[in-house]
Amino acid sequence: MKSFRLALISLLLTAVAAYAAEPFAVQAWGNFKQLAHTGNTAGVVKVSELGSAKGSYGLGAVAGMRGELLLWDGKMLVSRGHSEKGETSPAMDRDEAVLFIRAQVYAWQEMPVGKDMTQQEFESFVVSTAKKAGLDTGKAFPFALRTSGMNLVWHVVTGAPSGGAQHGSGTHQQGHANSRVFKETAAAGTLLGFYTATALEGIASHPGERFHVHYANADFSVSGHVDEYRVPRGSVLLLPINK
């Protein structure tokens, strides 16, 4: 009986986490907590199955922790671990994701950021502004930020450790993967993030956190997972509009 319970728990942990949060149809695949506990970095969904519909947005990591994924308005970009600059490239048929979260956004509303903010202050600003805009903050939702001059630390995972030398590690090590870390003091571009609420905390975000954020530069030619940031005054927060 004990072995049966353990097998059942293992099955539940490795199963795809599917979660629908109307009106943005948020779905998540994989599980941060399971990944951290087991180190299993096998793919849970083919990237080609994650969709290319206009208005679809998402982010995640490549199977084997060999890169980062960013889905922006139906276009999937892969930052592969072998790129020394975090450069993006189109997805390939064989690509799989070990983690991914996706939403459908038909339109965005813009909210100005009126002062410089720490990461913690900005996260509070996202939630409070979402409430004022009529979003249900008890459910997961996507958001974005257009910015310039941002202090930013981000990384691209390069693969699960195999005993060799590491390229460095970000604050948010995904499954203890090796990673290339980038530090910028005047980053210009876009952040795409998800507020996970309670239901997806530890699944689509690190345990104890409710935000999962990726960065792309102005022309989306580089991208990766965000570790630390400060948001400058004059940036613009984008929140999804209820259909």
Labels describing this entry:
60s Ribosomal Protein L30, Chain: A; 2 domains; 7-stranded antiparallel sheet; 6-stranded antiparallel sheet; 3 helices; single chain; mainly beta
Here the CATH topology of the largest domain equals 60s Ribosomal Protein L30, Chain: A
User: Which CATH architecture of the largest domain is right?
Assistant: 2-Layer Sandwich
Number of strands: 13
> H/E series, N to C?
HEHEEEEEEEHEEEEE
Give the tally of structural domains: 2
CATH class term of the largest domain: Alpha Beta
Q: What composes the largest sheet?
A: 7 strands, antiparallel
Number of helices: 3
Quaternary? single chain
N-to-C span: 48 Å
Low-confidence stretches: 2-18, 163-175
The radius of gyration over CA amounts to 17 Å
Helix-strand makeup class: mainly beta
Helix coverage percent of residues? 10-25%
CATH superfamily (homologous) name of the largest domain: Hypothetical protein, similar to alpha- acetolactate decarboxylase, domain 2
Taken as a percent bin, the fraction of beta residues is 35-45%
Integer average pLDDT: 88
Outline = globular
